[in-house]
Amino acid sequence: MHCTPIENWIMSKTGIKSRSREELKSYQLYKIKQTICYAKKHSVFYKKYLKGIAENEINSFENFENIPFTLPQHVEHNSIDFLCVPQKYISRIVTLRTSGTSGSEKRIYFTDNDLKLTVDFFYSGMKSVVDEDDKVLILMPGNTYGSIGHLLKAALDVLEVKCFIGDVIKDYADTAEFIKDKAISCIIGIPIQILKLSRIYPEIFGDNIKNILLSADYVPEVLIKEITDKFDCRVFTHYGMTEMGYGGGVECENLNGYHLREGDLYFEIIDPVSKKALKPGKQGEVVFTTLTREGMPLIRYATGDIASFKKENCKCGTFLQTMDRVTGREDNIIRFNGNKFIHMKDLDEVILSFEKVMDYKISIYEDKTTIGINTLTVEDFYRLRNIVADAVQTIIPDKIMVYYLKKNIEIKNSMLKRKIYDCRKKVLK
């Protein structure tokens, strides 16, 4: 097993001479202080938000943990105030719809240099996934400059790996035909779409696909196990979000957690209640700070994602920190009376274990929970309806009703994550 190529890239980028976490942490603390100074000087938001915090007083990570979190709501309400460069230097603006009912939007700004940093990370991370003989199909948006597909292709071009951009899947038959015609050996895509593709056209996975990289949403473990076992195919997962500059961490050949982009980002795992940093092995909220961002730096940005750092070093031999796969989001939980709750990941492991189910949508109301399931045929639905309901009933303390989704749940872009729709008016204690 080879050591993750991310390691050499980070050592070269940071200038550290030894494979030492202490040396890397010293670099990160230095860059944190630089980022605070830069943001306070150029960002309207941070000039006010961090008033009274002197960067020369941040002499330890313990000091840094006293700095308040940047919340998604801050970006939603003040996106333009985060800018640290004139707008004429912005090369890419990504507009993200929020999950609230107000229709509010967050805008994330990138300079050309910011985008090049992401290409750099993708270039190193993809070395674990592909080689020069591969043909790669990117099933994500990539037709606009600076989109995730465009940046991935730029990285693969430098690696001299043949690459096609197919956008998100709109026609599964066309996608399957393209994979066969072009002899695609590696696909990069959105988890639930790749699962559906593998269930409708299993022959293309058995005959063609060697490696898969899943990104842009939480990856159900049932999906990884099914594709790995059924097709003898390696399934890599990537962790990132637009606010990170798309790239945050990627698995190596060990396939057991993300090696993080530690030269560009500093990660923390925070206890959601105490707001204190947690030790490896303890699950909490992922928080990150950008270390090299030019257009829109973010300091202690609370992502809402749930994960933990691993206690042990990766078997690939790297000294880099490894993060366990993200298990979902804090806001993707159904809470019931009596302190009971269910994560979406729990529902995934139950509902998606039925191979005739292609996708599902869950909504919770005052008197019942409804689950809509996508199946290829109406006959499949009628065969599965009661079985799925009984299976879900074993993990959910509520009445449920299963209905058929006549229209598939459409994924419009790579940032639209699956979610639980909580339609209740009251707040449960």
Automatic annotation (TrEMBL):
GO molecular function, one term: ligase activity
Protein name: DVU_1553 family AMP-dependent CoA ligase
Annotated keywords: Ligase
Entry-linked SUPFAM superfamilies: Acetyl-CoA synthetase-like
UniProt key word Ligase: yes
Superkingdom: Bacteria
Listed EC numbers: 6.2.1.-
Gene3D superfamilies, per database record: N-terminal domain of ligase-like
Native species: Clostridium moutaii
